[in-house]
Amino acid sequence: MAVPVDTLISPEMFSRRLAAAGEEPLRQALVGAVTHLHALIRDLKPTPAEWRSLIAFLTEVGHASDDRRQEWVLLSDLLGATALVEEVNAHRPRQATPGTLRGPFFRADVPPRTLGSDISLDGVGERLAVFGRVVDLDGEPVAGAEIITWQANAAGLYENQQPDLQPEHNLRGLFQTDGEGRFHYLTVRPAGYGVPDDGPVGIMLLKAGLPLRRPAHLQFLIKAAGFETLVTHLYDGSDPHLAEDPLFAVKPELICRFERIGEKPCWQLDFTFVLARARKQRARI
Length: 285
What we know:
Layout: H1 11-17, H2 24-44, H3 48-63, H4 71-78, H5 81-89, E1 127-135, E2 146-151, E3 172-176, E4 182-188, E5 193-194, H6 200-207, E6 213-214, E7 217-223, E8 230-236, E9 255-256, E10 259-260, E11 266-274
Parallel strand pairs: 1-11, 8-9
Antiparallel strand pairs: 1-4, 2-3, 2-7, 5-6, 7-8, 10-11
Helix pairs in contact: 1-2, 4-6
């Protein structure tokens, strides 16, 4: 007896072939991804050569990723996917500081620094004094919160982009808030920068005409017991590229004024971060 065979390539065919005993959230995610992928293919009608070119591009993205550079994260960021994931998962109260994306230049192995330390290990650039405070939704200080900060230098380059030119862990630091929820440190004023265009992701999106200039900013990851972890940016309000951030991460609440202090080229930034209480997380895939 002949075995019936599906002849119509469709998401439904894919769904029927998934084992009934499979994990349901994973099944749903796969069926959803295949449904959209098939719809895109039917709409664009790529040739076999064009499809192989796409696979070759994805292969190049993988080859360009390593411990220091994450081209996959860059692709997700520039397609707006990372910002959208943050948005659909953001259930913070309106008073809480908005979250943004972590980006491809984050490093978890940041050395602890004492309050008031200078994280500019080469001292190149205009001085910037950063003062911060971490509070809860009621304005009460969050003592002992961990603050990881990282940024580009005065030329718009991160330390892990220039491992042979910048000192290890330049412009990075791990701080802890004091009893009043405060922290402070010295650094240099960062410059905006072009998203890396020397890899497959940047090359492709440049060809497509996407603006790749990020406005100047500082980045923070703030963690405290009992609170949602916050990853966010603080943007230089004088930067002309705020409206075209290619990572879709600029939010009005995060645009700051860098104030000049003294006669020398020295700046000051003061910002209060508001954390939301942790909530029970739903089951993940």
